[in-house]
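User: Show me an example of a complex going from sequences to structure tokens.

Assistant: Sure. Here are the input components:
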Amino acid sequence: MSTTAPNPTTSSVRSEAPVLSARGLVKTFGRVVGLDGVDFDLYPGEVLAIIGDNGAGKSTLIKAATGALIPDAGEIRLDGEVVSFRRPTDAREAGIETVYQTLAVAPALDIAANMFLGREMRRSGPLGSVLRMLDHKGMRESAAQSMSDLGIGTLQNMAQAVETLSGGQRQAVSVARAAAFATKLIVLDEPTAALGVKETNQVLSMINRVRENGLPVILISHNMPNVFEVADRIHIQRLGRCAGVVTPKSHTPNEVVAIMTGATTLEETPGRASN
Amino acid sequence: MTPAAPADTDAGTPAPSHSAAEQFAKRQQSPVQRIQHLLHAHPSISPLLVLVLSFFVFTYLNPNFGTLRTQSLIMQQVAVVGALAIGQTLIILTAGIDLSVGAIAILATMYSAKLSAEGGVPGPLAILIGIAVGTAAGAVNGLLVTRLKLPPFIVTLGTYSIFTAMALLYTSGQSVQAPAMPDLMTWTGKIVDLGGFRITTGVIMVVILYLVVGFALKQTTWGRHVYAVGNDSEASLLVGISVNRVLLSVYALAGVIYGITAWILIGRAGAASPNGAVDANLESITAVVIGGTSLFGGRGALLGTLLGALIVGYFRTGLSLAGVDDQWRVLAIGVLVIVAVSVDQWIRKVRA
């Protein structure tokens, strides 16, 4: 632990260019301010947790970054280039995959079908281009490959219906789909909210695996132990603003909760790294 | 069981390899659970069992039932409802329902029959007009469902009345008899003798329809999207499937099938009557439901619908050959529908 370089409490002193960055994001819903000028950066190969109380704007922030909402003002850059997503498919085409809390799976369809839902592999030649025939075999093999890439050994039969899987296994299918198609980053929205202890650990190990495979991850979570276990940096949202960006090494969970709830501020609690 | 999978190695949480939970997960399934999983994977098994069983029971009650002659007659009787049930299956797979099937078929029948008999329209064109009328009517249903976001039940309840009234107004309630029409119009009633198994060209057309639509549902991206939209339309939207386009295509294709069925209906009845096929609405739903397709959408297979339509035909002819009052047939079909939906409810609760 002590051998690593001291982590700065702010993200401004990094040499690498961020994969995804936002400046001055504003989003209002009538008279309610969802985002009040938020900046954030996601760097290559990191897991960035976004935490905050209900109504702090973490969902709004992530929806703005993935095209589910259009911000009123502000700028989003992907690999340095300004992007404006009008709908979730725009973000997907740009290489940002989102694992929604609802998982967005069709429960009666099998694992392979869900992995490729909306982007089915077709047979080669006129069978695929004219008859639009599905490549069942290719999709099963590729789905099995994606599963093993993430170290998910418990799912062997890609022809199994998703509704016959446990909650953690369904989450695994959804994460594997995102990891297989994402080229820039993955957003996970409360991936462990509905899971037990063992399945939560499996999902956290998948997140580690995704990072090792080179994709940065944005993790939205309420669960402080999970965040401290897996995140490299923690972006704290409070009342539509960013209350600070810390790391699991610079601050304790209690300090982070205190900043999140407004009991203290980052200035009052600069953490170990700045001392 | 998966030595090649280092699932927990890097999370810092090595799971005990034989925890109580894992033992529990690997427990033997009870026979009932195994049946539930089997039916979940293959929903057409139960209608197939009912069909085979009823074949033997009805043949035992009256040996005439098992003859090629009786079997071929049943095929001919079932053809029209069986064809309409293809469109109904597509719509029910999207978690919809079509109460206007019969009305659309009659509307298409009356347009092509009257135009060819009294308007001097040649046979092939009259048939195409019938298919076009069916397609347009199906598309109207689809547009009301997708654009106005009305429930399919209400849309088709309304269009059922509208299309029925249109057919009656157009024909002033008059039938068109076969001799008045070009021969092609009744070609679908022509007998084809397959070594003692006498079916009509209409029956062959229905079989082809089943093969083509069955292929599209199971083997193409379109079919996959039909299942996905019926299973979870929210999820389908999130993964980028254009739900409205899929729905509209399903209603329009159902209309095409109803239009083709109109031609088969003229051949079968030897006439076009605005009062024919009154029971087709409910009978087509019955065939789909007995065939194991879920009314909640996204589950089922076209093969099941074919079996369901045959089961209804078996009960009609079988019970009548057994000398039983026809009301027993009506009662038995009612029981079958309720049993089929109960089985579906049970299958949908399947868990790992």
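The lines above are the inputs; the final block is the predicted structure for all two components together. Chain B touches chain A through 39 residues (CB under 8 Å).
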